[in-house]
Amino acid sequence: MQVSWLRRALLAAACVSAIVVAACGGGTVVSQFNPNRVVAFGDAFSDVGQRGTRYTVNNATAAAWNERIALRYGLTLRPSAAGGFGFGIGSARVRVVPDAGGDASTPTITQQVDTFLATQPAFSAKDLVLVNAGIGDIVAEVAAINAGTQNDDQALAAVEQAAADLAAQVKRIANSGAEHVGVVGVFDLGRTPWATQTGQATRLSNLSQQFNIRLKTDLFGFNIASRVLYIDAEFYYNLVTQNLNNSTYGGINNVTDLACNSIDPGPGIGTGAGQVNSALCTDATITPGINIALTLFADRIYVTPAAASLFGDYAFDRLRARW
């Protein structure tokens, strides 16, 4: 088992090297890429208001990381429900239904790509495509463990399959005309309040890490490296949690408390009924005494507007360095 996981880790490292070589000094940028359109697929982390709100504090500063990237390019990313190109939606999984909250009507990432290819102008060299997933699948698989319907090995196999399915969608996008594709896996869910509150930090870290390893491994070796950039959310948010009060990371100093107290009596974000759901959070439901500009998490999993913008800026810099 250790040999197998070491091999995966080495393959993932090779994948990162192959996919980000230009961003690491391996090439010269001849002309700076400026997209005409940003297209985004994903789960709650990428939801720009598909059902009317985002998974964060819904105030004047609210913006998902991909919206921040679009803004940095001088563009706007609106939800597809409002005629835009932001297809991400809360609790979505890569291929499997129902979603993390048990809703079978939520479009998977695969279905989001299906819809785009069937209804929108084709991908072009002037598009920037942003893809993220994994959180919804991990939430659903952990719920099954906690319900006693599967064990950790089964959950790991399902999560790795979800990562393989996501890689397949990335390749599908790249092979459908997209020449600039940014891919984001999951941040370390073992560092979230969900992990702390439920005592599942080791389990959640393992599933998060193995999802990312499998995603990068499955992208490696295919003729799309020049068109795909892996943007490491796990790496970035680990730096945030390890460097509190550091101005480089927005001065964030609270990585344990929830910025919101917007309780959802239903399934919410999929971590249990009666828990905080940031999709319901506004300035009126901020936890008393919390400075949301210095707090990482809005609910048990998803981040505040400040934290989303920080990652958006980091991702923009990676994209700009590459293309």
Automatic annotation (TrEMBL):
Residues 1-22 form the signal peptide. InterPro entries: GDSL, GDSL_Est/Lipase, SGNH_hydro_sf. GO terms for molecular function: hydrolase activity, acting on ester bonds. It holds the Pfam family Lipase_GDSL. Keywords: Hydrolase, Signal. This is GDSL family lipase. The lineage of its organism: Bacteria, Pseudomonadati, Pseudomonadota, Betaproteobacteria, Burkholderiales.
